[in-house]
Write a structure and sequence with these properties.
Layout (H helix, E strand, L loop, with lengths): L2 H15 L9 E3 L3 E5 L4 E8 L6 E8 L5 E2 L3 E4 L2 E4 L4 E8 L12 E10 L14 E9 L7 H5 L7 E5 L2 E6 L5 E7 L13 E3 L3 E4 L4 H4 L4 E5 L7 E5 L5 E7 L4
Parallel strand pairs: 2-10
Antiparallel strand pairs: 1-3, 3-8, 4-5, 4-7, 4-9, 6-8, 9-10, 11-12, 11-18, 12-15, 13-14, 13-16, 16-17, 17-18
Organism: Xenorhabdus ehlersii
Protein name: P pilus assembly chaperone PapD
Keywords: Chaperone, Fimbrium biogenesis, Immunoglobulin domain, Periplasm, Signal
Length: 252
């Protein structure tokens, strides 16, 4: 066996034998998505150090829709803080004047990132893992802030499907981002083969994974709402385009 191969095997063996200091997240975030309404100056997020013995540093930052770290028009304060063992704290997201340069007739997408930094171990050969949480942040200008009527009649119900050959195209006529998490041929059914979750930008269209034949004439799409819930939309495709005919919310 060549020396190079021996060294590679040895390195892999040593890394596997090294104890892992922390395998689950210590710093927890209180939500799975952030909605920032344009009539607010800031939004506060709650974080908690769930490790009962060790303090952790919590590092936070914002990325644009391409995943690039940015310093405006939305910022996080403080960017780094110490959270004692078992303690709770807050991270504030706030806007800068440049927020006015964003489109005011539709949502803009950002990402909020939260990384935990464990304390340095006093034990030798300990592999420490810094876990990171990344959630979508939607900036919603005043002109499109959800009103009570919008919550009672969700904009996601305005989605339509258009058949092109053996595929459906999902059309989003709204000023909001809409995430489709599942696509099946019946309520509470499994996603059809070939479907991949997708996020529709405002006033856009995308092809739906999976064949139109497998989805049938009454496709069911599951979307993620502002609160992380997953209502299901049943479409009637007797005509073209297909329109929503039934909505099933969580627990119904």
């Amino acid at each position: 066996m060549k020396l190079k191969n021996i060294l590679m095997i040895t390195a892999m063996t040593v890394s596997c034998l090294m104890p892992i200091h922390q395998a689950t997240a210590a710093i927890a975030l209180d939500r799975t998505r952030v909605i920032f309404n344009g009539n607010m100056k800031s939004v506060s997020l709650n974080i908690e150090n769930q490790h009962l013995d060790l303090p952790y540093l919590a590092q936070a930052w914002i990325e644009d829709d391409k995943g690039n770290k940015i310093n405006g028009p939305i910022v996080v304060v403080p960017p780094v803080q110490r959270v004692e063992a078992g303690a709770k704290s807050q991270v504030k997201i706030q806007t800068l004047p440049a927020i006015a340069q964003l489109p005011q007739d539709r949502e803009s997408l950002f990402y909020f990132n939260l990384r935990e930094i464990p304390p340095r171990s006093e034990k030798p050969n300990v592999l420490q893992i810094a876990l990171q949480t990344r959630v979508k942040l939607f900036y919603r200008p005043e002109a499109v802030i959800a009103r009570r009527i919008d919550l009672d009649n969700p904009w996601q119900e305005k989605l339509t499907l258009t058949r092109e050959g053996n595929q459906y195209v999902v059309n989003n006529p709204t000023p909001y981002y809409i995430t489709i998490s599942e696509a099946s041929n019946k309520v509470n059914g499994k996603s059809v083969e070939g479907f991949e979750p997708l996020m529709l930008a405002p006033r856009s269209s995308e092809k739906l994974g999976g064949s139109a034949n497998s989805l049938g004439n009454t496709p069911v799409l599951t979307y993620v709402n502002d609160y992380g819930g997953r209502p299901q939309l049943t479409f009637n495709c007797s005509g073209n385009p297909c329109a929503v005919t039934k909505v099933v919310t969580d627990g119904n």
